UniProtKB/TrEMBL annotation:
<dbReference type="InterPro" id="IPR011809">
    <property type="entry name" value="His_9_proposed"/>
</dbReference>
<keyword id="KW-0460">Magnesium</keyword>
<dbReference type="InterPro" id="IPR000760">
    <property type="entry name" value="Inositol_monophosphatase-like"/>
</dbReference>
<dbReference type="GO" id="GO:0004401">
    <property type="term" value="F:histidinol-phosphatase activity"/>
</dbReference>
<dbReference type="GO" id="GO:0000105">
    <property type="term" value="P:L-histidine biosynthetic process"/>
</dbReference>
<dbReference type="InterPro" id="IPR051090">
    <property type="entry name" value="Inositol_monoP_superfamily"/>
</dbReference>
<protein>
    <recommendedName>
        <fullName>Histidinol-phosphatase</fullName>
    </recommendedName>
</protein>
<dbReference type="Pfam" id="PF00459">
    <property type="entry name" value="Inositol_P"/>
</dbReference>
<keyword id="KW-0378">Hydrolase</keyword>
<dbReference type="GO" id="GO:0046872">
    <property type="term" value="F:metal ion binding"/>
</dbReference>
<keyword id="KW-0479">Metal-binding</keyword>
<comment type="similarity">
    <text>Belongs to the inositol monophosphatase superfamily.</text>
</comment>
Amino acid sequence: MVTNLEGLVSFANELANESENIIKQYFRTTLTVDAKNDDTPVTIADKNTELKIRELIQARYPDHGILGEEFEGTNIDSEYLWVIDPIDGTRSFIAGHKDFGTLIALLHNNKPILGIINCPMHKERWVGVSGEQTTMNQKKVQTSSIQTLDKSYVCTSGLYFDNDHLRKGFNKIIEQTKYHRFGGDCYMYGMIASGLIEIVIEDTLKAHDYMALIPIIEGAGGKVTDKYGKIVTIHSEGSIVASANDQLHKELIDIINN
């Protein structure tokens, strides 16, 4: 049983506030960019933001686990596990584009109960809480009611499809949708929650990239699974299909797998 969910939500917003303060100091400044082992970029802004979030969690909830992008996980088998991405969309951040954000998720017994997408330069924050309707800047949001591909808008962060059958499925989908766009990182998922687009499909993601998105999209009426339609966990293989509603989602999964 989750205890003091309201307090946990308040604390998660504190984390988002603190991360925003750090990120703004570095945005559109000259930064040294290093390459990680997987060739993805990292900056001092990523590292300092995650270190601050970790420091605050460990001070307030020392028995909670932490799984982040930039450093080794701690106590990841804990009843409560924070999953954080200090800057989702580091490439956008480096280039001075605003479509990046901080992702903060809280899992209870491996189930996501809280998620935040905080996009500081857009001044937009989505908060999803288990059993509650998702909000953006404290106002309730709802996914699109569109249920057919021919009226849908689909997005992806880029052509990062390691899996051949997911790539082919995505190509079939964009042939049938009204609009498609490449780029957007976590901001795309906020757009789904707010009812502005209908579909996001991605591959090669890790837990810190997607756990926060689940309660946000589901709390707005949408659905998030892997490419097979299975529930996503921290151990999932990296594909994400997010959509505005169950009917649309079923069609997407059918196309990808047939």
